[in-house]
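This section describes the prediction task in plain terms. A model, or a person checking by hand, is given the sequence of a single protein chain and must write out its three-dimensional structure as a string of tokens. No templates, partner chains or ligands are provided. The sample shown here is typical of the held-out split.
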Amino acid sequence: MDVKNTQLCVVFRYSLVVGLLIVMGACASSNIPAPNTSETESKISQAEQAGAQEYAPLELRNARKKIEQAKQFNEQEEYEKATRLVEEASVDAELATVKARSAKAQEAVEQLRQTIETLRKEIERNQRNQGGSL
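The expected answer:
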């Protein structure tokens, strides 16, 4: 009898500890605050201003979609999912901005190359004309 009581006490203690851990885990996950979407929305606006509609439309569309989904999860008080989507939307918006700026820089480089080539040809033509008239 004594052994059975000891075993029951041990099982009860383990059950109690496991139960407390589950309750504490549930409380900890419910303390996640609602994410603030304004910073990410600002990054999306910056991407738009950088020309992401033209140069990175997929990334921009993904950022917009994820921020809207995050808002829905906020309303449903599913803050963990909302936080993850806000973070993903932020990364997508930053990527869209970088891609747009990179594409614009590449265009500027190409325009400079064309200008340099035009100037080089004009210099060569002027040198030929000066050489032939002397």
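For orientation: The first helix runs from residue 2 to 30.
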